[in-house]
Amino acid sequence: MEFSIKGGELSKLKAGCVVVGVFDSKKLTAAAASLDAVSKGAIKSAVSSGDITGKLGSTLLLHSVNGVVAERVLLVGLGSEASYGDSAYCRAATAAFKALKSTGVTDVVIPVASATTKEMAFKVEQSAVGAISAAYRYTATKKLDGKVGKSVTFFINGKYDEKAIKAAIKHGEAIGEGMNLTKMLGDLPPNIATPAFLASTAKDLAKDYKFKCTVLEKKEMEKLGMNTLLSVSKGSYLPPKFIVLEHNGGKKGAAPVVLVGKGITFDTGGISLKPASEMDEMKYDMCGAGSMIGVMKTVGMLKLPLNIVMLVPTCENMPGGNATRPGDIVKSMSGQTIEILNTDAEGRLILADALTYAERFKPDCVVDAATLTGAMVVALGHVTTGIFSSDDKLGAELVAAGNTAHDKAWLLPMGEEYDEGLKSNFADIPNIAGRAGGSITAACFLARFTGKYKWAHMDIAGTAWNSGKEKGATGRPVPLLAKFLMNRAGV
Ligand code: BES
Ligand code: MN
Ligand code: ZN
User: What is the dihedral of CA 338, 341, 347, 348, to 10 degrees?
Assistant: First the structure.
């Protein structure tokens, strides 16, 4: 995607489309009003015709507007002017890019109203994220149909801080590209996106961005005593991998942020087999891993001045003659024994050993992302990611990062009362508690392995992908994680 900044006369810019806003009071933004003036009222008449109400996220595409050089004008509803802010801007921008997706437009002009540098930079960054994210197409096993966005011109009338706006474009690009890598990894079928494929993707990233990449094989995992991870992998013919990516962009010796992603490349449930309906969507059970690999791309593109370690335990959860049985007891790398009562609660098993492995990096904090529980979808739907943390400050930091990135997350409770369900007559911990509060007890299970550092867990079961007609990975929570890391790096 090409980005540029232009000034001058909006109506005279050559482009496939100019995007301008309308409030629900029918009031036009300054950019919309300028096009209305040159077109002798074409915009106002489209609005008063009732074809667009100005409702937030509504759109209307106009062709060949008199006096406007661009081939099309896309009107976007901005909602009420009084409540128009960052969040509304993001929703309007997303709606605009979505509307353009089904057109032949490849180059678009986005006017950025002059305001404070901070406001302009926010809008430019979010628009860049939106443009790149909207240009994502799955093409690995299907022909591309339609056209894909190629360029975005930000139209800025008057003075602006060029350095800040260019930096905002760069940030937006890095977040968008990170998201698209995450989407691609999620959307690839489980016979392609295998543990070995994730490992080779990580190795490619390491080459591109000078990360250190280490991939532990089954033998090494055995030596380390990663038996809970291995117990999940046992029913699969594909070997498990444990991927480590290290970015040393910070001060030498500074404690790193450790990112951990659940990388189940397909979750059948194992012997506790899942029902057939929609089981294909369990290819997305590596989206935690995918989002960590994706955000490492963002980190690499931005060369963030921060030490970051990414850990991805990855394998399949399959039934089979050698698969783990409900009732099996395994000894985790931490030394705690685990009674596996349900082989479908496998994510927490692979994470347990990864969280123990994280200790060796003496982390500043550890953040994991996992499509961990169906209960998360019941609790927060497909809108908000659930966050759990043993450290209130870290939890709040992640929620705040999600708010600025427009990648919403919500802090949920944990604690002793919830932990009480995790009792086994035969092992230190069972891998499931009762049905009630399933996402919370899953977090409590993980907490048993995170005593040595500050830790937060993100359950992205509801937000990592869309089902139905729009089936596809969302690229979340890359924006949240990127903002979290960018804030920490001070960029
Ligand atoms: N990967 C699933 C969670 C999941 C299910 C995410 C549906 C998104 C949509 C996870 O491994 C799982 O199967 N969890 C079980 C846990 C249960 C056995 C305690 C679940 O949520 O049913
Ligand atoms: Mn499962
Ligand atoms: Zn799973």
Answer: -40
Q: Which residues are within 8 A (CB) of 389 and not within 5 positions of it... i.e. 6 or more apart?
A: 395, 398, 411, 414, 454, 455, 456, 457
Instruction: Give the mutation target among 285, 373, 432 for probing the ligand 1 site: most ligand atoms within 8 A of CB.
Output: 373
| Catalytic position from the list 183, 348, 408, 476 | 348
- 19: number of Cβ within 10 Å: 29
The overall longest dimension of the chain from CA atoms, in Å, is 80
Please name which ligand lies nearest the alpha carbon of 341: 1
Q: Is 326 left (phi over 0), alpha (psi -120 to 50) or beta?
A: beta
Percentage of the residues of the chain whose pLDDT score is greater than 90? 98
Assess whether the C-beta atom of 285 lies below 6 angstroms from ligand 1. yes
Query: Of all atoms in ligand 1, which is nearest to the CA of residue 346?
Result: 11
The pTM of the full predicted model, rounded to 2 decimals, is 0.98
- Assess whether the C-beta atom of 47 lies below 6 angstroms from ligand 1: no
Q: Between vectors from CA 156 to CA 150 and to CA 158, what angle results, nearest 5°?
A: 155
Average pLDDT, the chain: 97
Q: What are phi and psi of 5, to 5 degrees?
A: -125, 130
Helix, strand, coil shares of the chain, percent, nearest 5, are: 40, 20, 40
* Pocket mutation for ligand 1, best pick of 344, 348, 368 (most atoms within 8 Å of C-beta): 344
Query: Do the Cβ atoms of 24 and 88 come closer than 8 Å?
Result: no
Ligand 1 pocket, residue 373 CB under 6 Å: yes
> With 90 as the cut, is the pLDDT of residue 211 above it?
yes
Q: Is the peptide bond before 477 cis (omega within 30 degrees of 0)?
A: yes
274 is catalytic: yes
Ion ligand 3 — residues with CB < 5 Å: 264, 267, 285, 347
Mark whether 325 is an active-site residue: no
- Per-residue pLDDT reduced to its tens digit, 464-487: 999 999 999 999 999 999 999 999
Cβ atoms within 10 Å of 368's Cβ, excluding its own: 27
Q: Could you tell me if the CB of 344 is within 6 A of ligand 1?
A: yes
Give SS3 for 277. coil
Share of the chain above pLDDT 70, in %: 100
pLDDT in tens, 424-438: 999 999 999 988 999
- Domains of the chain (ranges, CATH numbers): 2-157 (3.40.220.10), 179-489 (3.40.630.10)
Distance 179 CA to ligand 3 centre (A): 21
Q: How far is the CA of 335 from the centre of ligand 2 (A)?
A: 23
Pick from 352, 380, 177, 190: nearest CA to 260: 352
**DSSP run (H or E) holding 241:** strand 241-248
Q: Using a 6 Å cutoff on CB, does residue 375 contact ligand 1?
A: yes
Q: pLDDT tier at 114 (50, 70, 90 boundaries)?
A: confident
Instruction: Using the predicted structure, report yes or no on whether residue 405 has a pLDDT greater than 90.
Output: yes
